[in-house]
Amino acid sequence: MTPDLVSAVIASYNMGRYLGTALDSVLAQDYRPLQVIVVDDGSTDETESILAGYRDREGLQVIRQANLGQTSAKNRGLSVATGKYVAFCDADNVWLPGKLTRQVQLIEERPGVAVVYGDVTLIDGAGRPRPTPKVRRYSGRITRPLLFDNFVTFNTALVLRAAIEECGGFDPALRMAIDYDLWLRLSTRYEFRYVPETFAQYRVWEGQMSRNLEGRFENAFEMMARFFAAHPEAVSERDRNAAWAHSLVSRARWRLRDGRRDEAWSDLRQALRHRWWDRRAWQTVARGLSAPSRAGERGRS
Fold first, then answer.
1. What is this structure's pTM?
2. Where are the extended beta strands (E) located within 47-132?
3. How far is the C-alpha of 107 from the C-alpha of 2, rounded, in Å?
4. Is 139 helix (H, G, I), strand (E, B) or coil?
């Protein structure tokens, strides 16, 4: 029997300094047949010259578009993907050898599973190892725990393409956490399978989008509101309130550390309206009351 085609999508914007490493890690996978799609989202750096060095590589397709953002770029890659399975490697990250071969084996062992994912290790801008925190991950129907933490690391996942298409791809209304939103929608229909194996390296470097905490929180609240509106029966009202409280407390803790006490208190009041007995909320209240005021130390953003 001929193995199923896997489509690998790399969306890149001005990531020329890392793109070659990411692309090499994908092309070096021992699984075949493999379709590799690079979407250059209007880069103005050395990306074009980097990609020119790969023009003769079998199975590689390069798409160039105006700068429309990561959501558009990933959806563009999906639109030309023809594999039964699809996987994503961000242009600043790295896949480890054997990732796809192992994951195809794992996903085909379990009918009903749409996503197989695993662990990741952190590296810095120069590719040196960084301490990697332990994350609790789950298998099966994971909607409830997923509401409290995005533990499905994007670059480690292999996904049934038909499932992504059924759920409508990445939501163009969102600017960040588009993978988290996709996992939530997929989790209402399919099972996930976690395996305690490391499949990728995640690069942490200055200036990357995921470090914009204020924007991440705003985007997360918008995403949750849209998800609950579209999937009112996905979890119980109790779980919805717990999820809102958890997110609000998380932002309150960050705002307290940033010296933004008034905004933190507003978040905590909202969290307690959702779940008045929330332990994390009351712990944060106590912490805030005991901490000296830092108002004025930092400008408001």
1. 0.91
2. 60-65, 85-88, 94-95, 113-123, 129-130
3. 16
4. coil
